[in-house]
TrEMBL record:
<protein>
    <recommendedName>
        <fullName>xyloglucan:xyloglucosyl transferase</fullName>
        <ecNumber>2.4.1.207</ecNumber>
    </recommendedName>
</protein>
<dbReference type="GO" id="GO:0004553">
    <property type="term" value="F:hydrolase activity, hydrolyzing O-glycosyl compounds"/>
</dbReference>
<dbReference type="InterPro" id="IPR013320">
    <property type="entry name" value="ConA-like_dom_sf"/>
</dbReference>
<dbReference type="GO" id="GO:0044042">
    <property type="term" value="P:glucan metabolic process"/>
</dbReference>
<keyword id="KW-0964">Secreted</keyword>
<keyword id="KW-0326">Glycosidase</keyword>
<keyword id="KW-0134">Cell wall</keyword>
<dbReference type="Pfam" id="PF06955">
    <property type="entry name" value="XET_C"/>
</dbReference>
<feature type="compositionally biased region" description="Basic residues">
    <location>
        <begin position="139"/>
        <end position="151"/>
    </location>
</feature>
<keyword id="KW-0052">Apoplast</keyword>
<keyword id="KW-0808">Transferase</keyword>
<dbReference type="Pfam" id="PF00722">
    <property type="entry name" value="Glyco_hydro_16"/>
</dbReference>
<feature type="domain" description="Xyloglucan endo-transglycosylase C-terminal">
    <location>
        <begin position="78"/>
        <end position="116"/>
    </location>
</feature>
<dbReference type="InterPro" id="IPR044791">
    <property type="entry name" value="Beta-glucanase/XTH"/>
</dbReference>
<keyword id="KW-0378">Hydrolase</keyword>
<feature type="region of interest" description="Disordered">
    <location>
        <begin position="130"/>
        <end position="154"/>
    </location>
</feature>
<dbReference type="GO" id="GO:0048046">
    <property type="term" value="C:apoplast"/>
</dbReference>
């Protein structure tokens, strides 16, 4: 990503889904399911939270009671909020390296997904495709090689009048 990834704990949500109809040159390259199952691997993953029944979308009353201590502990943890300095660092990181956001991709998502928090100032930087308006890439512009201009040697023939 061009910088160190934040070292503070974060939440994690991962899915593996088939986007081959739109994400691979307009569907030219399909997912090859002969390589299934697809596996995601996380290194040094530490989870801190409250276990819920995997099938349920909402916690039951008993689980809510069991989790009340967890909620209080998590809310008091140093990583539950970020400082002003950390917020500034994250904003600066996004300005330097974020070149696409599905939250601002109004062609694909006319109504932003529920997890998106739209920042009007940040939105101004993106086209309706979710890509940056200027530059379009997170990469640094290529530097032109600074060749030293070599003096052209032009042969000059001087005729000697004595000859």
């Amino acid at each position: 990503m061009g910088s160190e990834y934040p070292s503070k704990p974060m939440s994690l949500y991962a899915t593996i889904w088939d986007a081959s109809t739109w994400a691979t040159s307009g569907g030219r390259f399909k997912a090859d399911y002969k390589y299934a199952p697809f596996v995601a691997e996380f290194k040094d993953l530490a989870l801190d939270g409250c276990p819920l029944e995997a099938v349920q979308q909402v916690a039951s009353a008993a689980e809510e009671l069991d989790c009340s201590d967890s909620h209080a502990r998590l809310a008091a943890a140093d990583y539950s909020t970020i400082s002003r300095k950390q917020r500034y660092a994250m904003r600066r990181f996004r300005q330097r390296y974020l070149y696409y956001s599905y939250c601002y991709d109004t062609l694909r998502y006319p109504i932003p997904p529920p997890e998106c928090v739209i920042d009007p100032m940040e939105k101004e930087r993106f086209k309706d495709t979710g890509r940056l308006k200027f530059g379009g890439s997170h990469r640094s512009p290529k530097r032109r090689s600074k060749r030293r201009s070599r003096a052209r040697v032009v042969p000059v023939i001087v005729e000697d009048p004595d000859m």
